[in-house]
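Box 3.1 A note on notation
Throughout this textbook, protein chains are presented in two layers. The first layer is the amino acid sequence; the second is a token string describing backbone geometry. Keep the layers aligned when reading.
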Amino acid sequence: MTQATDLALAINAFVVGCKQDRIWDPIKACCIMAGWSNLTGALYPIKGPAPTNNGFVSGDYNRKTGLVGDGSSKHLGSGRLDNADPRDSHHMSVYVSSLTTNRAPDFYIGVGDVPNSGSSLGRFTTPDHYGRSRFEGLDSLTASTGFFGVNRGSSASYVTRNGGSEVTTSGSSVAASARQIAVFARNYNPVVGNYSNGRLAFYSIGESLNLAALDTRVTTLIQAFAAVIP
């Protein structure tokens, strides 16, 4: 088989596997930002709206590892409003190929109406990696490359997953923002900011789902790319 065929099969297996795991329907916006031959392909959505490119150029893209931010202005507008998903049924995830290092804090993906509330996946000195979902606080995990996601399936708590570990945070949900979710940054009042200089190979946004199942499918996909692409 050709390399293109192998890559197409890997993507097909990801979609089919997500459907088998019953996590495809909850995904409402998704880009596989690796594997494709160019940046245009990497920003073509496999589900939901196409993201708006704010500053990325072809040199920022690597077929094996994805798209890298600059930590100062480059980001994607996901095309997905935070309040498009129910207040108590929500997830967002990314695949981190290289960690963001600004730690000011900075965000792989995020949204909120004020800095201390909303939904996001990011990095700060303490905690190292943290997530929140419709919440004013945050949880913490040791920063690790690979799958990083947050999921809220109830009004009372949410789960963050990174490095194969999960932490559950108790906290009542706040109302979802009417803002568009940003990738490689956080869209919060009054502007997009807290830019990431990490490298991402995947993102998804949508309703509540099984993070462990999504982790397995996304990790298998990215590993398949690495095995096929020189």
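The chain has one domain: 26-209. Residues 26-209 form a domain with the Jelly Rolls fold (CATH 2.60.120.200).
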